[in-house]
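User: Second chain of the day. Same drill as before.
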Amino acid sequence: MKKDRLLKLNLQHFSEKNYKASTGVDEFYYAVLNESSDTGIINGSIERIKFAQTITVELPQEAVRAYGDNKTAEIAVSNGNVTVTGAFHKLPVEDRQTLLGLETVEGLGSYGEGDNPPYVACVFAKTHEDGSKEWVGLTKGMFMRPTINAQTKEDTTAFQNQEISGEFMERKVDGFTKEKSVVFGYDADGETTNRDALFNKVFGVAYPDTTTTTTTTSA
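Assistant: Same format as last time:
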């Protein structure tokens, strides 16, 4: 009887849902995909862009109805394009050159007709006040050239952030039966199990405890 009661308590513990809302965003990583591999393993190393402010992932769906006998006969779901928009305190030149496939000559970057952005994968974390994190992985996509904005300085200092947008598609991800565009997982405070698994699924390598990062510098 005591054993059955303990089992019931354990099941209640594991079935408890988490209702903590995210309050921040952190740890935006990306890597260029190796297109010669069927699973899209990365070329080079994972890069981090620090000081992310907002990351928006849009996953549109539309219900399509078929009619007959003056009523709905069937409903099917049509999935739209996955789009991503990120705002950063600053998007370093080095990252723009990599993400957008820009030609660089003698230290000068450029935009032109021949720009060919590479396929990349991305991961970022939605943070919670209790220290937990929800990790979101974007499996395969490319970013588009951002708008160039500048504003006069006034009496009070106003920081001007930078945005970049991209579109993502589905890709084979190890362990899943169907191709995926987004993979996500949750870790409680102090835990890294799902983070580590997600990095291996999306990038094919382990989470970078120490990684090459780009820092914001004055333009």
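The radius of gyration is 21 Å.

User: Great, on to the next one.
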